[in-house]
């Protein structure tokens, strides 16, 4: 039962980033997305992944690595589309 709860929690965490990423890519606008929040989130997933490596807890490493990739993608989208669709068209 513990592994099921962990797997569901990891799945929810991973999937939670997808709507935000999809919205940013669809609208080509990330001006409303918090840069600080995603910087903190990426930092947290780096630390959680490192923690899992140190513990040799590979499910923890795997879940947080995928979450890190999703959060880093959202952060990249924030940087890429920071000024909104109009600025992206001007480039």
The end-to-end distance, rounded to whole angstroms, is 52 Å
Largest sheet: none
* Overall pLDDT: 91
SS-derived structural category? mainly alpha
Number of separate domains: 1
Tally of helical runs:
5
Helix-strand pattern: HHHHH
CATH class: Mainly Alpha
CATH architecture tag: Up-down Bundle
Structure summary, number of beta strands? 0
Helix amount? over 70%
List unreliable stretches of 5+ residues. Answer: none
Oligomeric state of this protein: single chain
User: Overall 3D geometry?
Assistant: elongated
Beta-strand residue percentage: under 5%
Provide structural commentary.
With about 90 residues, this protein is mostly helical. The protein has one domain (about 1-90): Monooxygenase (Up-down Bundle). It has 5 helices and no strands. The protein has helices at about 1-15, 20-25, 35-55, 60-80, 85-90. Helix 1 packs parallel to helix 4 (about 60-80), helix 2 runs parallel beside helix 4 and helix 3 runs antiparallel to helix 4. The longest helix has 23 residues, at about 60-80. It is elongated and about 45 Å long. The N and C termini lie far apart (about 50 Å).
């Amino acid at each position: 039962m513990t592994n099921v709860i962990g797997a569901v929690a990891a799945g929810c965490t991973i999937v939670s980033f997808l709507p935000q990423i999809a919205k940013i890519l669809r609208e080509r606008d990330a001006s409303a997305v918090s840069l600080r929040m995603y910087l903190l989130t990426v930092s947290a997933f780096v630390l959680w992944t490192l923690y899992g490596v140190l513990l040799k807890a590979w499910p923890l490493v795997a879940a947080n690595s995928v979450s890190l990739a999703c959060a880093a993608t959202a952060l990249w989208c924030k940087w890429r589309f920071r000024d909104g669709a109009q600025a992206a068209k001007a480039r």
